[in-house]
UniProtKB/TrEMBL annotation:
Documented EC number(s): 2.3.1.225
This protein's name: Palmitoyltransferase
Lineage, highest ranks first: Eukaryota, Metazoa, Ecdysozoa, Arthropoda, Hexapoda
Domain-level remarks: The DHHC domain is required for palmitoyltransferase activity.
Stretches assigned to the Palmitoyltransferase DHHC domain: 97-234
Family membership noted in the UniProt record: Belongs to the DHHC palmitoyltransferase family.
EC class of the enzyme, as a word: transferase
Bilayer-crossing regions: 21-43, 49-75, 141-165, 197-220
Catalyzed reaction equations: L-cysteinyl-[protein] + hexadecanoyl-CoA = S-hexadecanoyl-L-cysteinyl-[protein] + CoA
Bilayer topology annotation: Multi-pass membrane protein
Length: 284
């Protein structure tokens, strides 16, 4: 059973976390409403089969984005959610390190995060958009959040390009649009209108797509290699592709893309990596 962080005590850790969480929380519904209520009726007749199918697809993608975002934010992947039992063998115990801030022996692959104020199991990095560290227990949600942001934003960018530059070129194809795209908030200063809100949504969709794509291309090779950002040059924990995927997405890794609510038990406790170190060196 996954332990959750306390929204009052733990979230958000810093002001920049708070800013980024607020941005994502506003942007997801804004983009969803614009796309399905403003853009979509211009492409497909309301009530037609394509209109209904696109609505169903949109609801599925936004459920995935919001669900994985919340799970990544709330699932506690820190050492606080675990009973730590250092190995008895002195040789293995030596691999653990003492964290003076947590005042405890911390397992290998865990690192202390100043924003979360705790050591995090198999820590990958601190994600400012969810205000939580990405580690052993929530990496699945982080990766799937990126995947669905890429899918959703790709759809938005494609449809929006046709909407702005072909269907409504009479309104948008001019120098004031260019100014609103370069400095969106200056555009609002001169003209508070839906036109500028739509342009901002269009622009943020592109930026989100690009950012999520870069993050995904950076993190995915590590997932396949069984490593974290801290270990990206080593293959110490590489157990083979299938087992590496299981280590991130759980035993039902083939199905987790269906829903963030789908339970998929992780095969390891996230603490005792010493045994895995021996195993992976035997495999090599
Ligand atoms: Zn610590
Ligand atoms: Zn953190």
């Amino acid at each position: 059973m996954l332990k959750l962080r306390s929204p009052v005590r733990d979230i958000p850790g810093t002001m920049s976390d708070l800013g980024c969480i607020s941005f994502v929380s506003l942007f997801i519904p804004l983009c969803f409403v614009f796309q399905l209520c403003v853009v979509l009726p211009e492409f497909h007749e309301p009530g037609s089969l394509m209109f209904i199918l696109t609505w169903i697809g949109g609801l599925f993608v936004v459920f995935q984005i919001a669900g994985n975002f919340l799970a990544c934010m709330l699932v506690d992947t820190s050492i606080r959610a675990t009973i730590l039992t250092p190995p008895q063998e002195p040789q293995l115990r030596k691999l653990w390190r003492f964290c003076s801030l947590c005042e405890t022996l911390a397992p290998i692959r865990s690192w202390h995060c100043d924003s979360c104020k705790t050591c995090v199991l198999k820590r990958d990095h601190h994600c400012i958009f969810t205000g939580n560290c990405v580690g052993y227990r929530n990496q699945r949600y982080f990766i799937l959040f990126l995947v669905y942001v890429i899918i959703g934003c790709s759809y938005c960018c494609l449809y929006n390009c046709v909407y702005f530059w072909y269907l409504h070129k009479d309104i948008y194809l001019n120098s004031r649009t260019l100014m609103s795209l370069i400095c969106p908030f200056v555009g609002f200063f001169f003209d508070i209108s839906w036109k500028n809100v739509y342009l901002l949504t269009y622009e943020l969709g592109f930026i989100s797509l690009l950012y999520a794509l870069i993050l995904f291309l950076f993190h995915w090779p590590n997932v396949l290699r069984g490593s974290t950002t801290h270990e990206s040059l080593s293959a110490k924990y590489d157990m083979g592709r299938e087992q590496n995927l299981e280590m991130v997405f759980g035993k039902r890794w083939r199905l987790v893309w269906l829903s963030p609510l789908l339970e998929s038990e992780l095969p390891h406790d996230g603490v005792h990596w010493e045994s895995l170190l021996r195993q992976s060196s035997k495999n090599r």
